[in-house]
Amino acid sequence: MFKKVLIANRGEIALRIHRACKELGIATVAVHSTADENAMHVRLADESVCIGPPAPKDSYLNIPAIISAAEITGADAIHPGYGFLSENARFAEIVAAHNITFIGPDADHIRIMGDKIAAKNAVGNAGIPLVPGSDGAVNSFEEAREAAEKIGYPVLVKAASGGGGRGMKVAQTAADLEEALSTAKSEAKSSFGDDAVYLEKYLQQPRHIEIQVIADKHGNVVQLGERDCSLQRRHQKVLEEALSPALTAQERVKIGDTVRKAIESLGYLGAGTVEFLYENGEFYFIEMNTRLQVEHPITEQVTGTDLVREQIMVAAGHKLSFSQDDIKFTGHSIECRVNAENPRTFRPSPGEIKQFHSAGGPGVRFDSAVYTGYRIPPYYDSMIGKLIVYGDDRAHCIARLRRALAEMVFVGIETTVPLFIDLIENPDFQKGDYHIHWLEEWLEKTD
Ligand code: ADP
Fold first, then answer.
1. What pTM was computed for the model?
2. Among 289, 310, 333, 357, which residue carries the largest CB count within 10 Å?
3. Looking at this predicted complex, what is its ipTM?
């Protein structure tokens, strides 16, 4: 087992990784920017190293500084968390070249899945159903027009290197295509340094359903069921639930099995998520994330697993601690992403948390790194915590979530807690009847 793990991240996920390490008896190294000197992960880690100024490119994305910190402290593995360098194949290679274990998949898998065109090819060949789309990248307007005609309008122009919902434009009709193409291309170029785009059928009212997988170096692959992440704003997830209220038990077994076999045939290692859109009983692959996801805890709640612990164990060469037959789903879990934002305008609200009290009690978990007196820096993502609730069934889970949200106290900053308090009283939400555009439509109606 590793003796010391460097955590190349910040915020709640840095703390989540620290906790898993401590429970395994592993020492931790926190790295931090000058803006995060007083962060909780820095306080709790056994050692900490300042790796640069606040801007992510100078600190949390600064590969030489992170490698130096690992070498100086003698860390034998690096956990990248999510975001930042977690899906950077080059980083995974550099870490390995320094004889340090990268806690994640092989660089080759990260690279393939990071290019959505290559990813579609790879998983399509492994038997996963795809969204109908262009045959690879479209290199000219002519090619795009021909592909769109074949697919049928509306179509979505998507960046091959896209992420975070950027570089995506809808063309409702042929008349919109030229503009959608050039806007998506220039957004892709400026955000990702790569203007390659492809076309997909634009699904009208799908749900976003993703399957969690984890694999070890001994050929064992386990799928841990799905998460429903359809409640989104600007293509970003806001509230997630496991399992999905929309799938039948048969559909669950079928898609889970298809994914497990595909991941096995790819020879994948570590945790990963295969994302689909789901409409009229059909699944359509959109992308695979080769890292831990923000919403992984709801899967942990309904399967009784610890995915970060397993990630560390399999990276160290151990076998998964469970087999597919051990995975039984019990109860229901919902996660609310608590952001330091105005709950209606979503304007960021950094600053000092003058007072903080977390919800607690049965079935309630608040994964966060904030504390009373903590000053939220303005340089990073506005998510400050994840309220994760578990219940015997969906109705019980919602009842617990209602009382947990009412217990949360934040003084000094605005948060999105009031948004969730309103949202969970909506009859469509309570029936589980929603799709990927539902939340934005509801926000407009209730403005
Ligand atoms: P990113 O990597 O930028 O997050 P994804 O491919 O994962 O991009 O898509 C993000 C979200 O965009 C999906 O959850 C869904 O809401 C929407 N989306 C993506 N592809 C399609 C499509 N073909 N039709 C309709 N909506 C889509």
1. 0.97
2. 333
3. 0.97
